[in-house]
Design brief:
Layout: H1 3-12, E1 17-21, H2 28-31, E2 43-50, E3 56-62, H3 69-76, E4 81-83, H4 86-93, E5 113-118, E6 127-130, E7 137-142, H5 143-152, E8 157-160
Parallel strand pairs: 3-5, 5-8
Antiparallel strand pairs: 1-7, 2-3, 2-4, 6-7
Length: about 160
């Protein structure tokens, strides 16, 4: 799904959302240069794989948090983790580096990627900001709406303490 298809899907599902258009960003340092309406809700997304290249994971946390993959592994009982290749990212989620987002899971028809969501996105206003499968925009929506949309597509969402 491309950016316009994501917007159409959100509209068809009656999900309220807001879009911030911006220059293409490829990492959190570049994202920090963008004026965001809800910086506290901006998400960082890590696409990782296990050491056997059999298990893939998308880990989504608040943008200001660091993810210790060794601690994540121990806490969530996964195999040792490392970053997945650009090729795997395109093959499994249809995304390029810098555009990693939970919306990419809608392209994972075989549900090969496990999704881990930082529980803190459910606190306060319950807002999350993620790319619409394109790194030139950020979509702001209620975290519960994102979870529901992904679950309806067959994606298992696992909240965790980041």
């Amino acid at each position: 799904m491309n950016k316009q298809e994501i917007y159409a899907l959100l509209g068809a599902q009656n999900i309220r959302y807001e879009v911030t258009e911006h220059k293409a960003v490829y990492n959190m340092a570049e994202m920090a240069q963008v004026q965001l309406p809800y910086p506290e809700a901006d998400a960082k997304n890590l696409f990782v794989r296990d050491d056997k290249k059999r298990g893939y994971h998308l880990i989504t946390v608040r943008g200001d948090k660091r993810v210790d993959l060794k601690a994540f592994r121990q806490q969530n009982k996964t195999r040792p983790l490392g970053f997945a290749s650009d090729k795997d990212l395109m093959e499994l989620l249809g995304l390029i580096p810098g555009a990693v987002t939970p919306f990419g899971l809608l392209n994972d028809r075989e549900h090969r990627v496990a999704f881990w969501l930082d529980k803190s996105f459910l606190e306060g206003r319950g807002l999350i900001g993620v790319h619409p499968n394109d790194n030139t925009a950020t979509v702001w929506l209620k975290t519960r709406d994102l979870i529901r949309l992904l679950q309806e597509s067959g994606t298992q969402v696992t909240p965790f303490e980041a």
